[in-house]
Design a protein that fits this description.
It is a single chain. The protein has 381 residues and is an alpha/beta fold. The chain has helices spanning 19-29, 83-90, 105-114, 135-153, 165-173, 191-197, 200-209, 231-241, 259-265, 281-287, 301-307, 337-349, 351-368, 371-378; strands at residues 2-7, 33-38, 41-44, 47-50, 55-57, 63-66, 69-73, 77-80, 94-98, 119-124, 159-162, 182-184, 217-222, 246-251, 271-273, 291-294, 312-315, 329-332. An 8-stranded mixed beta sheet has the order 5-6-2-1-9-10-11-12, sandwiched between helices. Helix 1 (19-29) crosses helix 14, helix 6 packs across helix 10 (281-287) and helix 8 crosses helix 12 (337-349). The two termini are 13 Å apart.
């Protein structure tokens, strides 16, 4: 059985923990013959670059082909040269399309039309917080072009998946796709890293490195700190006001204009900032935590932490309550230091409540957000 992943929406980087990386990895792990076609662009040190690797087998056994552009209008409407040729050569049994927002949708739809035994699944990573945020984007790009490409794919698509509840709603509300065809397919964590990070030795190594005693209650947070995620600064302030047992490790890059503020809040004892780390390292830091706190907007780290069985305290964003699988998560309603202190101290000072959060996180979170399980669900295994 052959699966072809189509990744024409955004740059593709090896080693990242995005849906296209991990679904293709675990589809290959399940025994499928997996090929992934993507655009030539990748991120190098935060900037877009053209990859020199155009046709190769990656470490997960996935055949990756970067497709040359045929036509490009404003870096928004792009057609690729060899889409039809790859489809006819590879002859997939399953197509998994990452995002319906691409101009070669008609080529893909034509292939499935002429090969009716092929099953096609399409996921969506757009919602109103990251897309359609201005008049031109909403009314021209999404309502005209991407609604059209979504409808070109629709007759031949088995399921449309939103990777957040808000992204399921986006498919129905903005693209007018049939509600019965649109479902939630959560993102998650890489099972390999979850296993290695969760060992006693790995956890002890992190806590020892930063002088975190077994009696300390360790909070970890991670991700970019910029003008859109200044709530991390509130968390740093809150921990300084909490019970002395509470310690905080912060990782991630910091926007230039906020570096001085971060430096002022770091004290080396209760609040430690360790800089940017590799994506796979994040598993080790989260695994060492008693509680992970994300006081700002949603990121893929939320699902990763859920997959690791760690209780969370997160911002109450509309359309992200899927992260709560029965009590592993508590939600923050306001951007305030006072609320953070109150919530953290309640969890710390009520160990029975924390034990319930932890049990649900392990029993339900790890099962629901495992990428092996997500990979199975994605193709209705």
């Amino acid at each position: 059985m052959k699966i072809l992943h189509v990744c024409y929406v955004g740059a593709y980087n090896e080693g990242w923990t995005y849906q296209e990386n991990l679904l293709s990895k675990y589809h290959a792990r399940l025994g499928y013959d997996v090929t992934l076609i993507c655009i030539p662009k990748e991120y190098v040190q935060g900037k877009i670059s053209i990859s020199k690797d155009t046709d190769y087998i990656n470490k997960d056994g996935v055949h990756v082909i970067r497709m040359p552009e045929k036509r490009n209008i404003g870096n928004k409407l792009i057609w690729y040269k060899n889409t039809e040729d790859i489809l006819n050569q590879f002859m997939p049994d399953i197509l998994f399309v990452h995002g319906p927002q691409f101009m070669d949708a008609s080529v893909v739809a034509k292939y499935v039309k002429h090969n009716p035994n092929v099953k096609m699944y399409v996921d969506n990573h757009c919602d109103y917080s990251n897309s359609a945020t201005n008049w031109l984007s909403k009314n021209i790009l999404h309502k005209v072009f991407w609604r059209h490409t979504a409808h070109v794919l629709e007759p031949y698509t088995t399921k449309f998946y939103g990777v957040l509840p808000a992204r399921v709603d986006f498919l129905v509300d903005l693209y007018h796709l049939p509600k019965e065809k649109c479902e939630l397919l959560v993102m998650g964590g890489d099972d390999d890293y979850i296993k290695s990070a969760g060992t006693d030795d790995s956890i002890m190594a992190i806590r020892s490195k930063y002088n975190i005693d077994n009696k300390d209650f360790l909070i970890v947070t991670g991700g970019k700190i910029d003008k859109f995620k200044t709530q991390t600064l509130l968390l740093m302030e809150a921990v300084k006001k909490c019970n002395n047992r509470v310690k905080l490790i912060v990782f991630g890059s910091v926007a230039e204009e906020l570096k001085n503020k971060v430096a002022e809040l770091v004290d080396g004892e209760k609040v430690k900032y360790i800089g940017w780390i590799q994506p796979e390292e994040s598993y080790n830091y989260f695994a060492a935590a008693d509680l992970v706190v994300f006081p700002g907007r949603h990121s893929v780290f939320w699902e990763q932490v859920a997959s690791q069985g760690i209780p969370m305290l997160v911002k109450d964003w509309s359309g992200t309550h899927h992260i709560d699988v029965g009590g592993n998560v508590e939600f923050l309603e306001n951007d305030s230091t006072e609320e953070l202190v109150k919530k953290i101290e309640y969890i710390v000072e009520n160990p029975e409540h924390y034990k319930v959060m932890k049990k649900i996180a392990v029993d339900e979170g790890m099962k629901n957000f495992s990428y092996m399980e997500i990979a199975k669900r994605s193709i209705e295994m």
